[in-house]
C-alpha cells in the first residue's frame, strides 16, 4: 500500500532529499528576490488602481492628489525597507517580526504579531490568486464563469510546486517575475521618451470618459478622510516586505547581508514601478470608478453593466505600446502570471513562521518538521487549505478580499519597529565602543521613525477600512491568538505533568516481564514508565531506540540518558530523510532476519487524552508506527499508556452517561434491560 501511494507522491513533488542536502536548497539573491519579493513587486499591478478608485468618489478633480499620495507611499516604503534592514541584521534566525516582538516586548506582543502575519499570509494567497483569475478572465470567459474553481485549481498547483522545495519553486517563479519587472520598466522608459522627447500624445482607452462623482465638492474633514482612505489603499504596495525578514535562513551565506541587499533592491524596484505607473496614468488620462457601470460616462451615457474595467497597468500599456501589440500582450501575460506567483511570498513566509511557532509550542509540533523535499510541507498544506476556504467564502472576489488586507501587516510593522527600539536601548546600556554606539544610535533613529510612521498608518487603515471589511481580519487575528494560546497552555500543562522526577516514583515500578524494544523520544515520565515495564519482562535483549531527526535534540537525549544512569542501552538510528516510521521498521526487520524464530515486541509510550482535539496534538507518530508494525510478521506492539489529567474528564463523562457495553455486546446487538412482564407460567 505504501508503494502505491509513494509513486504518485514522487511524481508530484519529486524524490526525497537527505538532511545534509539542506545547504544546497539555500537561495542566491537572484532567486531570493522573486521568491520573497514577488508580492510587493506584483502589487504595483493593482495598488495604483486602488488609489484612483477611491479618489474617483470625489470625481476626476481629485486625481491631482494622486502624486502626493504616491509620494507618501514612497516615503513609507523606504522607511519600512530601512527599518527591516536593521531587523535582518539583528535577528537573522528567521523569526522576523515575531522574534523581535517576542524578545523585546514580551510573549503577548509576539503572539499578536504572529497572529497578524498568519492572517495576512492567508489573505496574500487569496487576494493574489483572485486578482490574477479576474485579470485572466477578461480574456478567457470560462475563467470568469468558474472563477472559484479556477482559483482553487491554481492554489493546488502552487501548493504542489512549493512542496517540491523552495529552490526549485524559486527557479520556476524567477522568469515571469523578471519578465514583469522588465516589461514595466520598458513601459515607463518608452512612455517617458514618447512624452518628453518625442512629445507624442498618449491616450488611455478611458481618457475620453467622464466620472460621475458620488460626492461632489468634498472639502475639509470629508476630503481628508477620502485622501487617507486612498493612501491606505495605496499601502497595498507594502504587503510582503516583512517576508524577507522571516526568510533569512533560506538565503545563502552571508545570510543577513544578502537579505538586506535583497530588501533594498526590492524597495527600489517597487517604488520606481509604483511611481512610474501613477505618473503614466496621470499623463495618459486613465479613469477608474468604484462602480464603473453607472459612474463611468461615455458620450453622456453610463457605460452599463457589460463594460469591463481594465486595470490601470493594462490601460497604461495600451496607451504606451498600443492595444494588441507584442509588448502589450507580453506585459499583460506577465502581469496575470506574476499575480498568481505573488502568492509564493506567503508560501515561503507562512511555513517558516509556523515552524518557529511550533517550536515555541504555539502550534502543533507537526509544523516544525521538514518534509521529503526539505520544505515545511505541513505548513504549506495548512496555508493552502485556509486560502481555499477564504476564496470559496468570498467567491474569489478580489474587491471584497482586498478590504480585509493590509491591517495585519501594519500591526506587525508597528510592533516590530517598537521592539527594535527597545533592542537598541538595551544594547546601548552596555556597549562602550564609540563606533558601535554611533551605529546603534543611527539604527535606533531609523526604527523609531519607522515605528511612529507605521503606527500612524495603522490608525489610518483601521479608521478607513474597518467598516469595509477590516474587522474580519481583526477577527481572524483574535481567533489565531486564542487558538495558539490554548495550544501553548495545553503543551505546557502536559510538559509539567510528564516531567521526569529527580527521585524514583510510581512510574519506575517494574510490572510484568516480556522481551522488548522501547521507543524513546525524550526522557520523561511516559518513557520511564515504558522502560520500567520492559525491564520486568522475560527477554533475551532489551534496547531503547531513538530516531535522530534533530542532532541537537539527539545529543541532549543521550546526555540526559547518561546523567540518569538508566541501565538500558540506548541506540540511535540515523534518519537522513527525517522519517520516524521507516528506520524502526527496517531495524525490526533486520532483527527478524538475524533471528527468524524470535518474536520482537516493540514498546511504545503513548498518551491517553480526554478531548477530541488533543488527538491532533499527540500520538500521530505512534499511530503511524503501529499501523506499519501490525503488518510486520513476528512483531508484537505494546502500548504503554500514560493517562494525562484530561483523561479523567473523559472518564467522568462516561460515568455520567452510564453507558457501558460488555465485550461482545456489539456482535450480539443491544440488550433489552427493561423489566419483563410475568408470563403467567409456573
Describe this structure in words.
The protein has helices at 2-13, 29-42, 47-55, 66-90, 96-105, 107-137, 141-145, 147-163, 166-197, 220-234, 243-246, 255-284, 292-295, 312-321, 326-341, 344-359, 377-393, 398-401, 407-428, 434-465, 470-498, 525-535, 551-564, 581-594, 620-629, 646-657, 665-668; strands spanning 210-211, 296-298, 301-302, 517-519, 543-548, 570-574, 600-608, 635-643. It is mainly α. It has a 5-stranded parallel β-sheet with strand order 6-5-4-7-8, with helices on both faces. Helix 10 (220-234) crosses helix 20. The longest helix is centred in the N-terminal third of the chain and has 32 residues, at 166-197. The relative contact order is 0.12.
Summarize the structure.
The protein is mainly alpha-helical and 682 residues long. The protein folds into 2 domains: 31-488, Amino acid/polyamine transporter I, CATH 1.20.1740; 506-657, Rossmann fold, CATH 3.40.50. It is 61% helix and 6% strand.
Alpha-beta classification: mainly alpha
Biggest beta sheet summary: 5 strands, parallel
Number of strands: 8
List the total number of helices: 27
Tell me the β content: 5-15%
CATH class of the largest domain reads Mainly Alpha
The largest sheet has its strands arranged as 6-5-4-7-8
* Shape estimate: elongated
- Can you tell me the CATH topology of the largest domain? Amino acid/polyamine transporter I
CATH superfamily of the largest domain: Amino acid/polyamine transporter I
Distance between the termini: 62 Å
Write down the domain tally: 2
Task: Return Rg in Å.
Answer: 30 Å
Mean pLDDT: 78
Question: Percentage of helical residues?
Answer: 55-70%
Give start-end ranges of low-pLDDT stretches. 1-5, 19-24, 509-514, 658-682
CATH arch. level architecture of the largest domain? Up-down Bundle
Amino acid at each position: 500500500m505504501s508503494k502505491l501511494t509513494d509513486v504518485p507522491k514522487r511524481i508530484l513533488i519529486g524524490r526525497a532529499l537527505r538532511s545534509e542536502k539542506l545547504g544546497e536548497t539555500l537561495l542566491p539573491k537572484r532567486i531570493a528576490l522573486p521568491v520573497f519579493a514577488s508580492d510587493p513587486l506584483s502589487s504595483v499591478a493593482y495598488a495604483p488602481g486602488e488609489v484612483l478608485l477611491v479618489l474617483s468618489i470625489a470625481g476626476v478633480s481629485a486625481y491631482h492628489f494622486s502624486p502626493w499620495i504616491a509620494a507618501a507611499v514612497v516615503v513609507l516604503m523606504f522607511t519600512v525597507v530601512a527599518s527591516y534592514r536593521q531587523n535582518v541584521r539583528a535577528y537573522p534566525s528567521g523569526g522576523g517580526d515575531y522574534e523581535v516582538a517576542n524578545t523585546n516586548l514580551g510573549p503577548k506582543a509576539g503572539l499578536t504579531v504572529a497572529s497578524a502575519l498568519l492572517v495576512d499570509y492567508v489573505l496574500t494567497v487569496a487576494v493574489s490568486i483572485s486578482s490574477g483569475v479576474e485579470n485572466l478572465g477578461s480574456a478567457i470567459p470560462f475563467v470568469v464563469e468558474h472563477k472559484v474553481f479556477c482559483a482553487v485549481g491554481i492554489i493546488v498547483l502552487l501548493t504542489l510546486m512549493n512542496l517540491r522545495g523552495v529552490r526549485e519553486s524559486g527557479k520556476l517563479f524567477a522568469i515571469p517575475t523578471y519578465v514583469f519587472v522588465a516589461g514595466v520598466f520598458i513601459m515607463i522608459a518608452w512612455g517617458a521618451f514618447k512624452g518628453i522627447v518625442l512629445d507624442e500624445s498618449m491616450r488611455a482607452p478611458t481618457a475620453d470618459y467622464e466620472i460621475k462623482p458620488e460626492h461632489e465638492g468634498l472639502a475639509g474633514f470629508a476630503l481628508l478622510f477620502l485622501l487617507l482612505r486612498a493612501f491606505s489603499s495605496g499601502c497595498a504596495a507594502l504587503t510582503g516586505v516583512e517576508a524577507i525578514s522571516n526568510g533569512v535562513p533560506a538565503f545563502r551565506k552571508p545570510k543577513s547581508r544578502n537579505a538586506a541587499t535583497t530588501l533594498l533592491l526590492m524597495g527600489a524596484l517597487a517604488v520606481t514601478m509604483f511611481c512610474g505607473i501613477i505618473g503614466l496614468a496621470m499623463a495618459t488620462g486613465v479613469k477608474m470608478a468604484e462602480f464603473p457601470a453607472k459612474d463611468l460616462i461615455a458620450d453622456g451615457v453610463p457605460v452599463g453593466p457589460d463594460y469591463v474595467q481594465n486595470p490601470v497597468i493594462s490601460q497604461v500599456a495600451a496607451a504606451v505600446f498600443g492595444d494588441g501589440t507584442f509588448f502589450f500582450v507580453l506585459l499583460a501575460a506577465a502581469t496575470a502570471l506574476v499575480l498568481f506567483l505573488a502568492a509564493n511570498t506567503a508560501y515561503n513566509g507562512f511555513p517558516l513562521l509556523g515552524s518557529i511557532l511550533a517550536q515555541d509550542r504555539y502550534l502543533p509540533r507537526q509544523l516544525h518538521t521538514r518534509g521529503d523535499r526539505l520544505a515545511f510541507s505541513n505548513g504549506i498544506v495548512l496555508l493552502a487549505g485556509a486560502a481555499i476556504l477564504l476564496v470559496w467564502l468570498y467567491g474569489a472576489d478580489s474587491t471584497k478580499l482586498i478590504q480585509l488586507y493590509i491591517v495585519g501587516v501594519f500591526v506587525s510593522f508597528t510592533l516590530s519597529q517598537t521592539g527594535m527600539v527597545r533592542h537598541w536601548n538595551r544594547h546601548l546600556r552596555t556597549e562602550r565602543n564609540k563606533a558601535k554606539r554611533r551605529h546603534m544610535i543611527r539604527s535606533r533613529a531609523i526604527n523609531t521613525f519607522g515605528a511612529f510612521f507605521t503606527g500612524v498608518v495603522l490608525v489610518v487603515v483601521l479608521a478607513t477600512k474597518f467598516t469595509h471589511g477590516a474587522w474580519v481580519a481583526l477577527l481572524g487575528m483574535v481567533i489565531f491568538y486564542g487558538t495558539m494560546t490554548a495550544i501553548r497552555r495545553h503543551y505546557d500543562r502536559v510538559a509539567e505533568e510528564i516531567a521526569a522526577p529527580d527521585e524514583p516514583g510510581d512510574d519506575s515500578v517494574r510490572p510484568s516481564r516480556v522481551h522488548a524494544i522501547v521507543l524513546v523520544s525524550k526522557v520523561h515520565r511516559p518513557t520511564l514508565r515504558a522502560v520500567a515495564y520492559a525491564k520486568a519482562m522475560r527477554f533475551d535483549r532489551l534496547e531503547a531506540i531513538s530516531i535522530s531527526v534533530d542532532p541537537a535534540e539527539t545529543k541532549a537525549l543521550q546526555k540526559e540518558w547518561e546523567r540518569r544512569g538508566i541501565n538500558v542501552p540506548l541506540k540511535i538510528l540515523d534518519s537522513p530523510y527525517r522519517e520516524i516510521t521507516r528506520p524502526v521498521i527496517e531495524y525490526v526487520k533486520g532483527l527478524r532476519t538475524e533471528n527468524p524464530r524470535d518474536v520482537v515486541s516493540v514498546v511504545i509510550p503513548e498518551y491517553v487524552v480526554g478531548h477530541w482535539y488533543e488527538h491532533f496534538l499527540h500520538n500521530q507518530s505512534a499511530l503511524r508506527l503501529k499501523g506499519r508494525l501490525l503488518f510486520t510478521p513476528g512483531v508484537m506492539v505494546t502500548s504503554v499508556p500514560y493517562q494525562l489529567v484530561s483523561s479523567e474528564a473523559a472518564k467522568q463523562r462516561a460515568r455520567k452517561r452510564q453507558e457501558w457495553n460488555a465485550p461482545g455486546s456489539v456482535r450480539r446487538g443491544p440488550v433489552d434491560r427493561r423489566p419483563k412482564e410475568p408470563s403467567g407460567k409456573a
